[in-house]
Recover the amino acids of this structure.
């Protein structure tokens, strides 16, 4: 996948002006050692691995951007997955798996430099219940807030009941299993001004498989996938 960087070495050869001129001088340019290579992009001798690492990073970034563009385009086209055909769902699953391989964030739940915290908008999911397939339509964004400092999360949305739009939310407690996987215990449901505690059986799990400044990919404990973008 990686295009090799060509290494060029040049030497300067002396030329005789004529037989009566002063003895020619020879200019010698040091050849790169076995541990360095001519970097044609920067014009300096760098350790052999560095140009390859830079080229790979550039390729990864380009591939990552392209995959995100394809995923978000398909998410919009399918209305968050609500109108996805079997072929589109299969395509999204493939793109999702490919982007996971380019995850730039290690241990997003425990990494102090992670950009996980904050509000995220759900752009696509295979969960019929979350996007309201066969039920009351969701109006506007479906938002998930995550705060790893308090190990809490909150999902919120607006549901249209006939001609009335009603806010609905659920708060949850996070219990990280490792750097990217967390158990989820739902705590309290709100429907408009009414609230009630969640039953103890209301539990789930989230596996954050990709995270950058713009996009988050998550796999749920029931096999569903989620594509979210930062708000």
């Amino acid at each position: 996948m990686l295009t090799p960087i060509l290494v060029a070495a040049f030497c300067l050869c002396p030329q005789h002006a004529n037989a009566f001129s002063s003895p020619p001088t020879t200019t010698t340019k040091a050849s790169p050692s076995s541990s360095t290579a001519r970097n044609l992009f920067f014009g300096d001798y760098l350790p052999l691995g560095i140009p390859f690492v830079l080229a790979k990073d550039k390729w990864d970034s380009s591939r990552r951007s392209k995959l995100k563009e394809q995923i978000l385009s398909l998410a919009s086209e399918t209305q968050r997955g609500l109108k996805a055909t079997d072929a589109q769902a299969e395509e999204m699953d493939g793109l999702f798996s490919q982007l996971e391989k380019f995850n730039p964030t290690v241990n997003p739940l425990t990494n102090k430099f992670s950009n996980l915290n904050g509000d995220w908008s759900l752009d696509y999911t295979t969960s019929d219940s979350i996007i309201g397939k066969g039920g009351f339509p969701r109006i506007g964004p479906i938002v998930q807030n995550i705060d790893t400092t308090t190990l809490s999360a909150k999902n919120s949305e607006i549901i249209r009941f006939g001609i009335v739009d009603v806010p609905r939310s659920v708060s949850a407690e996070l219990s990280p299993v490792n750097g990217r996987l967390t158990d989820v215990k739902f705590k309290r449901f709100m429907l408009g001004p009414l609230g009630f505690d969640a039953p103890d059986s209301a539990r789930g799990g989230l596996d954050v498989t990709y995270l950058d400044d713009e996009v988050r990919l998550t796999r749920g404990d029931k096999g569903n996938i989620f594509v979210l973008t930062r708000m």
Summary: The chain has a mean pLDDT of 84. Helices lie at 49-77, 86-100, 128-131. The first helix runs from residue 49 to 77. The two ends are 34 Å apart (CA to CA).
